[in-house]
Amino acid sequence: PAAMLSLLSAHRGPAAVAMRTLCSHSAARQADAIYWNDKHDSNESRFEKILIANRGEIACRVINSCKRLGIKSVAVHSEIDASSKFVQLADEAVCIGPAPTSKSYLNMEAILQAVKQTGAQAVHPGYGFLSENTVFAKRLEDLDVVFLGPNSKAIRAMGDKIESKRIANKAKVNCIPGFDGEVKDADEAVKIANEIGYPVMIKASAGGGGKGMRIAWNDKQAREGYRLSQEEAKSSFGDDRMLIEKFIDKPRHIEVQVLCDRHGNALYLNERECSIQRRNQKVIEEAPSVYIDPDTRKAMGAQATALAKAVGYDSAGTVEFLVDSKKNFYFLEMNTRLQVEHPITECITGVDIVHQMIRVGKGHPLLLTQKDIGVKGWAVECRVYAEDPYKAFGLPSIGRLTTYSEPTALENVRCDSGIQEGSEISIYYDPMICKLVTYGKDRQSALNTMVNALDNYVIRGVTHNIPLLRDIVTENRFVSGNITTNYLPEVYPDGFRGKQFSDRDRLNIAAVSAVVFAKNDLRNKTYLKKDRSNIVAGEAKKSFDWDIVASLDGKDLLCRVSYKEGGFTVAFEGSETLQIKDNFSLANKVIPAVINGDSVCMQMMSRSFDERVTLQYMGTKCTTIVRTARAYDLSKFMPVRSDKDTSTTIKAPMPGLVKSIGVTVGQTVAEGQEICVLEAMKMQNSLSCAIAGKVKAVHFKAGETVNEEDVIVELEPLA
Questions:
Q1: Cβ-Cβ contacts under 8 Å for 354 (sequence gap 6 or more)
Q2: The domain spanning residue 216 has which CATH number?
Q3: Do 664 and 608 fall into the same domain?
Q4: Cα separation of 518 and 227, whole Å?
Q5: Helical axes 56-69 vs 353-361, angle rounded to 10°
Q6: What is the mean pLDDT of the chain?
Q7: Beta bridge partner(s), residue 607
Q8: Which of 23, 201, 258, 610 stands 20 to 30 A from 138 (CA)?
């Protein structure tokens, strides 16, 4: 229904209005089923109109709650977002400036003008942009417009890390203990270590680069670690002053969702496990955490709500903790806004967090009590990004979604997205495509559904991170729940290289690729629903055979493919024979293959004129060269194309903005020297040269945009 609404929103007339109404009612019924624990008084007063000062999926999320509640919504958008999904969903839309965020979504004056122009009574900031800006909240208050978030005092207090920890300590919230004064000798080191609690980190005050640092797990290691670290620090830095702090062993990033009102009520809506991260950004979240037992959950929730009350919090917020290997937890920070991963909390509690934020903003007390908040089932969220997972676990990608289909037809799947087929992923904003959420009675059920959802998620036109997500949710360590914030570099020390296929996997890929080749050959022999062989033989052939060589991962697999009505038989020479059901067409994006009776989901990525069949299997793309045995024999006489030397060029690894060029034509550069800095989606990336040489040409200058694979600088090797 939501997808239909977005398609219909641009159309007018009685038929379109009727269809939109029908879809709205259907979407509302679905939402009521999701938010089964969303307590409120149906007769209580409501806002008439809410402006959403954000974009993308979070704007769609807020608008959907507004529609369910009968509240009119206003979208503000940049010029480049004029035809975006969230703009189509909203009842009204106001353009607030050009594409750059500084001129649009961070343009406070333009947004405030839109508030005045539309008569909005409240503003929901979503997350990011102005969501934690105290000046924005105060300006709205001056206009007598409600900021749907916490009061500015709470935002200011929790935004200051020193102040927030001072308040947390006063509220008896666990903070990472430490002694940042000078430790005089080994005896004092042991004393302080016992006061803090093992393990501890003994490190030099002037340390760095891993020198002058030791981890101690007992008194003996504390004495020895102090001595060795002090000696190392003196020789390395000329400064032997030492300090001690708590070492968080095998840290997990676990956060607690809180919900507070203006009447002194504060609830915790359980925890979320957010340890799967890259570059300190979350990739996969789940609720609850497999690591947290009921007693620890209660203790963390009590401290989270104590902190919220101490700061006078009055909205939805998140208190983040680091949890060590002994389930000790320590306060990190508080996010004074709606969190990206809030849907998984909604799945296991049945609470519409956005609705409750709106209620609290209107001044209503929470009708939920802590006893109403349980843990029902399990939810997992994968952040689907337009990123290349083979580059540093995800460098941004841009482009147009030429084909796009979310797996919402599957049960217990929720897709929070702000895009649709035809949408453009640009360099100006976060590359998120969708928050893919699956739900189940237990963790394994939710993970099984996630695997199925990722296999059926069709995205074409941009590079995406589904290969990495699909591999993680089936990786043994993740499935067992043995995860920390160091998970990605520990499991993939050499970076992500795609699914490592077994011999059985390769046979499945080769067999389906061979069937695709055979089906295409059959189609070429048929016209007007008649077999061309009828003309020659005088009667219809009911079976066909092909001798095929499927080349995959450097191996050539000889097989005979036979077709009889209803299915194919693929017999590999010296290996197995596979039966493949004829249940898909060459037009299908998703191939629900049945191999020897087992369901195997693949996606058809492409078929090229040079006999290459590219499939997506277990999230990873793989190309098989499929040829007849005759064509394979002749291919041995074809010249081999040599790889082009790319060491003399510095290419853009992703689309972005050139921030600086550090060289000029004619300049000599050393191997590994920084050549330029490229900014892409809030990240700055230093590009260096692979060889020593002289700069031959500079094709871009600072301030210009580049596409992926654009040559920025050319070099000439030194003689």
A1: 61, 62, 65, 124, 338
A2: 3.30.1490.20
A3: no
A4: 73
A5: 70
A6: 89
A7: 613
A8: 258
pLDDT digits (tens, 9 = 90+) for 192-233: 999 999 998 888 876 554 567 888 999 999 998 998 888 877
Length of the chain: 719
Last residue of a domain, one of 605, 636, 667: 636
Q: Could you say which of 246, 272, 306 is where a domain stops?
A: 246
Q: In what order do the strands lie in the sheet with 649-651?
A: 649-651, 711-717, 693-698, 668-669
Residue 337 annotated in active site:
yes
> Does residue 405 share a domain with residue 454?
yes
Name the residue range of residue 682's domain: 649-717
Q: What angle do CA 502, 506, 507 make, to 5 degrees?
A: 115
Same domain, 396 and 463: yes
Greatest CA span in the chain, whole angstroms?
101
């921030």: which residue's tokens? 659
How many whole angstroms separate alpha carbon 410 and alpha carbon 444?
A: 16
pLDDT tens digit string along 247-304?
Answer: 887 899 999 999 999 999 999 999 999 999 987 789 999 999 999 999 999 999 999 9
pLDDT band at 508; cut points 50, 70, 90? very high
**Bridge partner list, 78:** 97
DSSP string, 491-518: H-TT--------HHHHHHHHHHHHHHHH
Half-sphere exposure of 309 (CA within 13 A, CB side): 16
Do residues 385 and 444 share a domain? yes
Q: Which of 110, 119, 3 is nearest to 72 (CA)?
A: 119
* 658-699: pLDDT as tens digits: 989 999 999 999 888 889 988 876 567 788 898 989 999 999
Task: Write the CATH number for 474.
Answer: 3.30.470.20
Catalytic residue among 68, 139, 278, 337: 337
Q: Is residue 270 part of a domain?
A: no
Tell me the DSSP string of 611-674.
SEEEEEETTEEEEEEEEEHHHHHHHTTSPPPPPPP-TTEEE-SSSEEEEEE---TT-EE-TT-E
- Give the whole-angstrom CA distance, residue 53 versus residue 67: 17
- Residues 577 and 630 grouped into a single domain: yes
Residues 470 and 420 in one domain: yes
- Render pLDDT for 90-131 as a digit per residue (tens, 0 to 9): 999 999 999 999 999 999 999 999 999 999 999 999 998 999
Return the bridge partners of 289, or none. none
CATH of the domain at 96: 3.40.50.20
56 in any annotated domain: yes
d(CA 37, CA 72): 24
Assign residue 660 the CATH number of its domain: 2.40.50.100
Asked if residue 108 is part of any domain, the answer here is yes
- Taking Cα atoms as reference points, which of 455, 457, 482 lies closest to residue 600? 455
Position 137 pLDDT exceeds 70 = yes
Tokens of 47: 């806002």
Judge if 468 and 520 occupy the same domain: no
Are both 123 and 242 inside the same structural domain?
A: no
CA-to-CA separations, 63 to 84, 183, 316, 343, in angstroms, rounded: 13, 56, 17, 15
Name, in order, each residue with C-beta under 8 angstroms of 86's C-beta and a sequence gap of 6 or more.
52, 55, 56, 57, 59, 60, 63, 75, 77, 418
Confidence (pLDDT) at 242 = 86
Structural domains of the chain, count: 5
Is position 337 within any domain? no
CA-to-CA separations, 629 to 425, 615, 622, 635, 636, in angstroms, rounded: 43, 22, 21, 10, 12
